[in-house]
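User: Structure tokens for this complex, please. No commentary.
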Amino acid sequence: MIVYKFGGASVKNSDGIRNLSKIVSEANAPICVVVSAMGKTTNALECVVRTLFDGKASEAYELLNSTVIVPHLATARQLGLDTQKLENEIDNLKDSFQMVSHGHGQLYDKVYDCIVSYGEVLSTRIVADYLQLAGNDAHWLDMRKLLRTDSTFREANVVIRDSQQLLLNAIADEPHNIYVLQGFIGANSQGNPTTLGREGSDYTAALVGNMTDAESVTIWKDVPGILNADPRVMKDAVLIPELTYYDAVELAYSGAQVIHPKTIRPLENKSIPLYVKPFMEPDAKGSVIAGTKKCRIEVPVVIRRNNLTLITIRPLDFAFVMEESLPNIFSVLKQHHLKVSIIQSSAVTISIAVDNSSHIEEAIEFLRASYRVSYNQGLTLLTIRQTNKEIERRLKPETQIMIEQRTRNTVKFLYRTLQDTKE
Ligand code: ASP
Ligand code: MG
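Assistant:
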């Protein structure tokens, strides 16, 4: 088995789906094709759910129709598909929408997963139908029946053993060359749809690779592979041809947008190589992540993470026992789904930079019950791995640096990009 994963950008329109079909048809079967929602569909569905919860059901339905249903039908028609199966799924989506819009006191995150998961359902339906039309032996699988998770809606944890059994049985029951399955979505044991966190399709691909003992996993992207910097920021960015699993985890954690941070572990566990390749140039070599030996990256790697918030926490009095406070603080951050990117502590303060999120204010309110808390928004974290004087001279921020951290090979600067301090 091999696993290919195509993200939203690679299936954003009919040309993208034709390109996917060409790449998949040329691969050696059997193959699992993991697909994200088309283009910005997930954002559009998030907006539908938000509008619904704002009490504007008919506006939400209008959005669902104009930003999701109509464009999917249009793409299917451009591809010359018989739209019957797609329309069946659209009917299911409409039914789910009606059901949640008439329910009262429902959990936001549960409704979110029920509706937002349709992005992948619809995209895979189109991809599977097109692969069949193009003469392939392709079979659509429903990950809401195969990827078993707990009930942590919007950030669900996968129950690997159950999922593996379900997936392998589904494959054994229906032998085909190509299986098309949804990234990002699963369901709990009651059958309620769940999602794995934004951009979670890479993680699904890695899990499918792990569960099927795949020879390799390939993520097809709109970049040449893994670069040492964002080419929009550094014009002379170069491709990193080989990385270890450890390098890849470090890059993902520092905020490199190439792969979802959870992707590496299921692959590393079974020594499955991960290729990152450009979908517009399928014969290019791209990058490969494999092996655990020491770092193979020879160039400085520059990662910029924008829009962070630095939360600074002090005790209400001087009795700040770090060992007691830290678990408490981190459990609040976890409960509010905040992702930490840098931590700095002194005797009486701890400063933690987290990704921008709609839950920040809530978390801060929570922390304020026990601590004095201030925060700065609009910060940027610049991480340079394999750093040297020359690259630091070029890139060290001129604006106010709030935290600078240095280890032997890596330097991190957290600096202010927008003036915005709140007490
Ligand atoms: N469609 C989901 C998202 O946009 C998952 C993914 O693309 O990986 O977040
Ligand atoms: Mg996406």
